[in-house]
Each structure stands twice: as structure tokens, then as C-alpha cells.
Amino acid sequence: xxxSEREDQTVQSDISQIIAEDENEDYEAEDDEAYGxxxxxxxxxxxxxxxxHKWVHGRRFHSYREGNYMFPNDEKEQDRLDMFHHMFKLxxxxxxxxxxxxxxxxxxxxxxxxTGIWAIDMADTFPSVEMVIGNDLSPIQPRCKRVPPNVxxxxxxxxxxWPERPPFDLIxxxxxxxxxxxxxxxxxxxxxxxxxxxxxxFQDFHLVNYSQDGSLKEENNVxxxxxxxREACEKMNRSITVGxxxxxxxxxxxxxxxxxKVFPLPLGTWPRDQKMKEIGAFNMLQFLEGLEAFSxxxxxxxxxxxxxxxxxxxxxxxxxxxxxxVHMMHDL
Length: 332
Hints:
This protein is α/β, with parallel strands linked by helices and 332 residues long. The protein has eleven helices and twelve strands. The protein has helices spanning 3-8, 32-38, 48-51, 75-91, 117-125, 183-192, 221-235, 246-253, 274-295, 298-302, 307-321, and strands spanning 17-21, 53-56, 59-62, 107-111, 131-136, 151-155, 168-174, 194-203, 206-210, 256-261, 264-266, 329-331. The strands form three sheets. The chain has a seven-stranded mixed β-sheet, with helices on both faces. Strands 9-12-11 form a three-stranded antiparallel β-sheet. β7, α6 and β8 (194-203) form a beta-alpha-beta unit. α6 (183-192) crosses α8 and α9 (274-295) runs antiparallel to α11. The radius of gyration is 20 Å and the shape is globular.
């Protein structure tokens, strides 16, 4: 995107997905074989500091870089994240990404891969991709024959210094709000490891609830829940309202041709449109399943609530979330 193009573009303040092209001409590619000798997908046995877990009120959390990510990694949360994957694909019209990436033998990086479902889906959908690397703090990705041979997973902290390696054609990041303390540096590191003409795509939220018809009142407990979650995450310097700044961070890092799109996500099955109704159903399911995951550590360890206080409040949140007369939405 040239300067003149930027002047003509209307930027929406609640933008939550950006696609940016890298025109970095200074990157010198490292040799693939040299990198391959250094990094493997679960090469030997993972250190106990990585594979050990921490338990908080019956929910399992990662131990590697403890405190960098305040949400569980147990099977219940993994199921919710996989549900989220399907909701994202619905919102994107069945696509895994929107960046205009073409060709064969592509190198792809999935930041914060979680269960690895996007990376695996990417390799299955585009079998000519040379390699899809997914990294995460938690070693919860599958390690079995159903993982395509061109997928590898790494246990790594994306906020640490990235290892030297050949650059990528596409760097993908999704649902990282509440996880990152230094977004500008994340964009800078992504820029430095994107090929000339390559792309990055950040799909994320601006987690502020709203209604278009005035049916959502300020005292609604879903609103209150998001307010408290924002407060807790801000205290940890890990914002959940990053959508408004993604474009700025991409441009400051050096990316050009920055594009952005907003996808409204309803909470519940109240929309008349069938596609939006289906998205709303998935969103409601993941929200109800995720309430405890979002709050069990943040509310007790950061806000100082007791476990009992959290459970009583979540019951009120669930009740208000199920009210079909309130047409709640937030943006992807």
C-alpha cells in the first residue's frame, strides 16, 4: 500500500483482521538443511519444564513460561479451540486465510497454533505446501500418523527471540488477544521472517460487546464479564482489545499493502440469516464452554476473587447470555 492509498482508505476502529504484505529486501535466507538440523517436530523427549502442567481449581494450565498465558490447555479447552476453528472458517466463507498467497512449496508459520488444527487443515487442504510450522507454549498438538508429513510443531514462546530460519511465504496468527504483551515486537519479528512479497495475516478480536438495536443494556452480566476480563488482562499487560491497533502495528513494522476486514459475530441463534445463525450457535457454545477457562485464573489470581465468587458470577453471565431478546455481537 502506497502513502496515497492509505490516505484514501477508511479505517474502521474496531478492525480485528489484517492482512499485510512484506516488501523487506534485506533478509538473507538461511539454508533449509542447516535450519532443519536445528529444529525438529518434537525431536527427542521434551524437558519436564515443558511437559509438566499446573492445576488451578480443577483446570490444567501449561508450565512452560508460566504466567505468559493465563488460560487452560486441558481437553475441555482443546475441544473449545477446535470449535472456534470451525466458527472462524464459517465467518471466512470456508477459507483458512484471505491473503493472496499462491504457488507450491510454500513455507507457512502458524503463531500460537494451539491444538494444531489450523496447521493440519492447511497441510491437508494444500498438500503441495512445503512445510507448515506451528508453535505454541503448550505441547498439546497431536503426535500421531494423522499429522501430515509437512507439518511440524514446536514448543516455543513467540514473544522470545525467534530462531534464525528460512523466511515464510505466509505467517498466520489467530486468537492471540490476551496472550501477547508486546504486539509491536511480534509484528517486527514477523516482518523479519516473511519473504519478499510474502504475507502475514492476523485474525483477532476487539472484545467489546454491542448490539445494533439497543437491546444490550449496560447492566447485562455478559458486558460485566468482558469488562472484568479486560481489567484482569490489562493488569497483566495482555490486552483483549487489540483489534483497533493491528493496522498501526503492521505499518510501523514495515509491511505495505495492509488490508483489513471486520466480521460481526453474533452471540446466539437470534439472527434471521442462516449463516449468521450458525455462526452465532458456535459462538454461544464456545462462549459458554469458555467462561470458566477465561476466568478461573484471571479472576482468582489477578482480581483476587474466590473460586466460589467466580462460580456464582458465571451463573449470572450464562443466564444473560441465553436471553434471546438481547442481540449481542462482537467483531472478528
